[in-house]
Amino acid sequence: AQSVTQLGSHVSVSEGALVLLRCNYSSSVPPYLFWYVQYPNQGLQLLLKYTSAATLVKGINGFEAEFKKSETSFHLTKPSAHMSDAAEYFCAVSDKGGTSYGKLTFGQGTILTVHP
Amino acid sequence: DTAVSQTPKYLVTQMGNDKSIKCEQNLGHDTMYWYKQDSKKFLKIMFSYNNKELIINETVPNRFSPKSPDKAHLNLHINSLELGDSAVYFCASSQEKKTQYFGPGTRLLVL
Fold it and tell me: Which of B2, B38, B97 has the most A C-beta neighbours within 10 Å, making it the best mutation to test the interface with A?
């Protein structure tokens, strides 16, 4: 069984400050890991993904995440927050070779607020 | 062109009614999914089809019935709607187990 825990349901930063959104996962098989962003009343947009290549993954809008197997973590970071980054962020895990055929298990989401 | 589209975008209906939500993808993917996002924004998979074959069927009431007429379409029919069915329903598609691309969601409100 897989699970995802996002630490902190709300994160608030000032514009220009570092963004750090935490994600820890549990998986019995090597995982694929994803971060999605959801703007108000919109669908989910893929920010970045880890699929067993480089452990440091760069995504859109200046975001990146590092896969750390020893810590079972996949935290999302951005060096300098913009007002437009305000949204809800979801971490998700999918198994690579199991029988659940690409089923995504999501964390509970983290709402990012950016203050001027 | 929209990659994954859903209709309708909003659906308001009475308890006990039957309704359908449609999903279409023009990405040429072979796998499609339905997810439910509840009022607390928690996302959970409901169903998945690969090449029109049902491959994931989570613990979902049998009032929910997915149908895939072809690889590009996955519809969701809901019978005897209940208040607890109010949620946002997302369709997604992928090529095999690769990255899933989501539609804009259908906001269902059952009164």
Answer: B97
Residue A54: is its pLDDT beyond 60?
yes
Q: Which amino acid is at A8?
A: G
Q: Taking residues B23-52, report their average pLDDT.
A: 92
| B94 touches A: beta carbon within 8 Å | yes
Confirm if A105 and A3 have CB atoms less than 8 A apart. Answer: yes
Classify burial at A23, counting beta carbons within 10 Å of its beta carbon; exposed 0-12, middle 13-18, buried 19 or more.
buried
Cα–Cα distance measured from residue A109 to residue A91, given in angstroms and rounded to the nearest whole number: 7
Q: Under DSSP, is residue A71 helix (H, G, I), strand (E, B) or coil?
A: coil
Q: How far is A106 from chain B (nearest CA, A)?
A: 6
Task: Answer whether B103's CB lies under 8 Å from A43's CB.
Answer: yes
State the smallest CA–CA distance between residue B47 and chain A in angstroms.
9
Q: Which residue of B has its CA nearest to A39?
A: B104
pLDDT tens-digit series, residues B31-41: 999 999 998 88
Tokens of B105: 């969601």
